[in-house]
Amino acid sequence: MRYVEEFRDPKAAKALLAEIARVTDEIGATKAKPVHIMEICGGHTHAIFRYGLDRLTPEGVEFIHGPGCPVCVLPMARVDECVQIAEQPDVIFTTFGDAMRVPGTKKSLLQAKADGADIRMVYSPLDALELARRNPDKEVVFFGLGFETTTPSTALSIQQAAAEGLTNFSVFCNHITVPPPIKVLLDDPHMVLDGFVGPGHVSMVIGTHPYDFIPEDYGKPIVVAGFEPLDLLQSVLMVLRQIRDGRAEVENQYSRVVPEHGNPVSIAAMEDVYEKRPSFAWRGLGEIDESGLRIRDKYAAFDTEAKMGIGYGAEVAREVEEPEGCACSQVMTGRIKPTGCPQYGTGCTPEMPLGALMVSSEGACAAYYQYGQRRPVETAE
Question: CB burial class (10 A; 0-12, 13-18, 19+) of residue 346?
Answer without folding.
Answer: exposed
